[in-house]
Amino acid sequence: MGRRRRFDETDVLDRAVQLFWSNGYAATSIRDLERATGLSTASLYNAFGDKRALFRRSLQRYLDRSSRRRVALLDEGPSAHAAIVALLDAIVEASAGSRDGCLLVNSAAEVAAHDAELGADVCAGLREVEDALHRAVLRGQAEGAISRRLDAPVLAQAILGTIVAIRVMSRTGAGTAALRRLADSQIASLTPMPAAA
To answer: Which domains does the chain have, with CATH numbers?
Structure first.
């Protein structure tokens, strides 16, 4: 019978998330993870597997705590247009004054092109956001608050692209005003043109 674990797995994952988020996957060493979590290499490996397995678990933890909570609001809001605007506003607010970006977006730039397995995890996370945006766009078009002239899948991709751009630009030190302009430009594209008199 194995020994009972004497640590909170969720707390360890949260600490690993912060480290991968700040440093990136490649620059985070097992020694860094030991220091951040207070666990030995043996304990980390026994509980989570190797560094990449811990990174994969950390990415899912990040998605649960961040992305999935935000995109759930797209399905729950009384107005799809208002929900999309609120999401973009929240992304600007979370990004302004921070150079951390988003662990999902950071990982897309760092590991997705070089590691098929980690890349698949990242793509799946981005696809969740895109699918939720697609549902919201379709609902907004049915409500008459989003232009029906726009192709719903393409618009969902464009909104996701804006979110990614906001996150990346925040890492370069772009100010709130610049991030706000990106969001506002995307929001303006959603609204139906008034009928000609």
So the answer is: 9-58 (1.10.10.60), 66-190 (1.10.357.10)
